[in-house]
């Protein structure tokens, strides 16, 4: 997933010449952690954070945004991976980052956008893994699937160790899965049917596609 998939827009911005009190009011009104500062061409020239505004007010310095903003601003491009954005935010203690294309502001990504994407992505992966396993076993298994940060845990009854390995391998074929493991809850029920070998299942699917 990339910045373009989760960015928010339109973006509330201020100009370098915006009075500091006016910019501070915007921060308070919208509950933002920071505001991008842009020039007449919508190029990001800085960021005005809550900390910048508070420090300026306490020191009674500056009458406009340009005097207290942080510059240059740390920005990302639409094609930047969300994992990269998250790492930069944590390393630099940022709560939001402007998204620019050819230097022009096109959106902004906040930590809440990353968290929302993480939740949605894990839910999507869980759904795809469940569909893949149901297709493989014919819905004969009642497995509990949990996903966190792309790591899949599949809990329930398995016919044997071979089936556990097969199920893990199938889960790993789903895009976005970083790791997959099984957690057997109890021995298989007497007479529990074993799903077909993975190679046999794949061949059957290939035959169905050709047919």
Strands, helices and their partners?
Elements: H1 3-6, H2 20-30, E1 34-38, E2 44-49, H3 50-59, H4 82-92, E3 96-101, E4 104-110, H5 111-137, E5 144-148, E6 151-156, H6 161-172, E7 179-184, H7 198-210
Parallel strand pairs: 6-7
Antiparallel strand pairs: 1-2, 3-4, 5-6
Biased composition (Basic and acidic residues): 202-211
Domain CBS: 7-66, 69-127
Protein name: CBS domain-containing protein
Structural class of the secondary structure composition? alpha+beta
How many alpha or pi helices? Answer: 7
Give the C-alpha Rg. Answer: 25 Å
- Residues in helices, as a percent range: 40-55%
Q: Which CATH first-tier class of the largest domain would you pick?
A: Alpha Beta
Q: Which strand-content bin applies to the residues?
A: 15-25%
Low-pLDDT runs of 5+ residues are none
Strand order across the largest sheet:
5-6-7
CATH-defined superfamily of the largest domain: CBS-domain
Which fold name fills CATH's third level, the topology of the largest domain?
Answer: CBS-domain
State the total count of DSSP E strands: 7
Q: What would the average pLDDT be, to the nearest integer?
A: 84
Major beta sheet summary = 3 strands, mixed
Series of H and E elements: HHEEHHEEHEEHEH
